[in-house]
Specification:
25 helices, 9 strands, serine acetyltransferase, domain 1, 3 domains
Length: 566
């Protein structure tokens, strides 16, 4: 195919796609308010409906079956459904088919993909996307997370394991005490672990305490002493670097040891911090709710007379966090934002008193029920994905035009909010749509290939702050990456036996072949106008069916509709 022909055909199809964006042709599947006999789903529906009534809003219609199926695959296992998976769901006439699909996605059939997806999500949450950080071993972090999610580790145990982890952060030859969970803190222990304290409070308690390190917070009740009292829990912990003969870091070992305190008295192991006026103050480990633990800097032990002494500060911290009402609420808020696009607060990891949630009754109630369900993340996922707000169309109606959080409005969840795929979701979805996943690499080799692509993606789509932005704003760098990346070349390749070759050589009419492309990428059939224009393109190709299909396929994959979760 010549470049000019490809660009012309692709541009034509992109314009057609833009004109018909989200004009799905699959019949809507109304749930009629059904909560599938799950009380937590009923609770969500009632609370959200009350918010609609208070705001004088009407929800959008239900999403089509294809739209819902595509979004639940993306959100639960990090990729779009295959054509076969989509077809089975659309052919199912059972009123319980949504609940059945969610159960399958959270069950044994998809356990590896579930673990892979949530490993991607939590790797970014815990250590970010900086692949050049020598203080973190991404492979070790991912290995631990995969095991945790494969076993559906209860969330309270998940948090405790990360906050209290000790051992080596890398799984290499000669290392006997590997513990991948240590990577959460291994890169955060500089300056006495102040970053470890800040990130632990932010991620697991929803408290933005980092701003109070140097002074009281100007806008909320956060006090400087509270930051240093929380930081004191990490003062028994050190990150020891071990080097290879090449002087590269082999691993970082997290160890706990007695802390003598900055005054040299381990019986009352204090640390000092400085006020803005230059005065020094002392801090001991005190939890955010005011609960104090022993001031001792000694690790637990026994004297000759059998009397016990000392305290393991991080373990004490984990127990206090387990009992805090903040912990279940912040994970509920995080998971709600993952599935619905926005949390009950913005940002999702700021539950301070200055930042009131949009639906406090729902957040409190789900947090309490999540605790009652033994912190089972899969149960929480089930409640959210089977709820009414998750089932709604992304199309705004006359009754909810004001519900636009992008304009600063408080989200009412009266329609599904459009959002870009995460970088990892786009990668996996490209493989799935083109069936390239059938022969792809697995394990760490696959993870490294993905990291290489993600590196390009973050350069093209990231922000100066290095956050998790995936906004497609049409910059030249983004366009070139999507048009010409190696992954896109593979996705649109016409090699013998490949995806496009199989479609082109199939014993079906042109309309059916075009249908197959749209269903594989967008979970919908093309509109009549799109079919007509695509057929014109195939005629213009003068019998070169695979060339015409390649142009259409390339354009579909580069459309905004493909990279959107809608």
């Amino acid at each position: 195919m010549q470049t000019q022909q490809r660009l012309f055909g692709g541009a034509l199809a992109v314009m057609l796609l833009a004109a018909a964006c989200f004009a799905g042709g699959i019949a809507a599947a109304a749930d009629g308010g059904d909560h599938f006999g799950i009380p937590q789903v009923k609770f969500i529906n009632e609370q959200i409906a009350a918010g609609w009534a208070d705001a004088g809003m009407q929800p959008s219609a239900a999403a089509t079956d294809g739209e819902w199926c595509r979004r639940v695959f993306l959100d639960c296992i990090g990729r779009i459904p295959t054509s076969e998976e989509l077809g089975r769901f659309l052919a199912d006439s059972s009123p319980a088919k949504k609940a059945d699909l969610v159960t399958r996605l959270l069950g044994e059939d998809y356990v590896d993909e579930y673990a892979r997806n949530w490993t991607d999500v939590w790797t970014t949450v815990l250590i970010g996307r900086d692949v050049e950080n020598d203080n973190v071993n991404r492979s070790g972090m991912r290995q631990w997370l995969r095991r945790a999610f494969s076993k559906n580790m209860p969330y309270d145990q998940f948090m405790e394991a990360l906050v209290t982890a000790s051992g080596a952060n890398a799984n290499k030859d000669g290392i006997e005490n590997f513990n991948g969970a240590t990577n959460f803190l291994s890169g955060k222990m500089e300056e006495g672990g102040v970053q470890a304290a800040a990130k632990t409070a932010q991620i697991f308690l929803g408290l933005q305490v980092q701003c109070t390190q140097c002074h009281n917070h100007p806008f909320n009740k956060g006090k400087q002493n509270q930051f240093w009292e929380f930081s004191a829990f990490f003062r028994q912990t050190r990150a020891l670097r071990k080097y290879e003969q090449t002087m590269d870091i082999q691993s970082i070992e997290m160890v706990d040891e007695d802390f003598a305190g900055e005054g040299g008295n381990p019986e009352e192991a204090e640390l000092y911090y400085e006020l803005r006026n230059g005065l020094k103050k002392v801090a001991y480990p005190v939890f955010v709710d005011g609960t104090e633990i022993s001031k001792s800097g000694y690790l637990p032990g026994k004297m000759d007379d059998g009397k016990e002494y000392g305290v393991h500060r991080r373990k004490e911290l984990a127990q206090l966090m387990k009992g805090s009402p903040l912990m279940p609420k912040v994970i509920v808020n995080r998971m709600w934002a993952h599935f619905l696009g926005y949390g009950f607060t913005k940002p999702i990891d700021d539950l301070g008193e200055h930042n009131a949630p949009s639906n406090p009754e729902l957040l409190d109630g789900l947090g309490a029920q999540f605790r009652e369900q033994s912190f089972d993340l899969k149960e929480l996922i089930k409640w959210i994905t089977l709820s009414k707000p998750y089932s709604l169309s992304s199309k705004v109606s006359k009754g909810n035009t004001r519900d636009d959080p992008a304009l600063g409005e408080t989200p009412k969840f009266s329609h599904f909010y459009l959002r870009q795929m995460r970088a990892e979701e786009l990668y996996e979805s490209l493989l799935t749509a083109t069936q390239a996943d059938e022969s792809r690499a697995t394990g760490e080799k696959a993870a490294k290939k993905k990291d290489e692509w993600l590196g390009q993606f973050v350069i093209a789509f990231g922000t100066d702050e290095g956050d998790d932005s995936t906004t497609f704003n049409g910059s030249i760098t983004q366009v070139l990456m999507m048009f010409n990346s190696e992954l896109m070349k593979v996705a649109t390749g016409t090699g013998k036996g490949g995806f496009l070759d199989r479609i082109a050589s199939g014993n079906t009419k042109n309309a059916a072949k075009i249908d197959a492309l749209y269903m594989a990428a967008l979970a919908r059939k093309p509109s009549a106008k799109e079919v007509s224009k695509a057929n014109d393109l195939m005629i213009a190709r003068k019998g070169d069916a695979i060339g015409a299909l390649q142009d259409i396929w390339w354009a579909v994959l580069n459309s905004n509709e493909f990279i959107m979760n809608h």
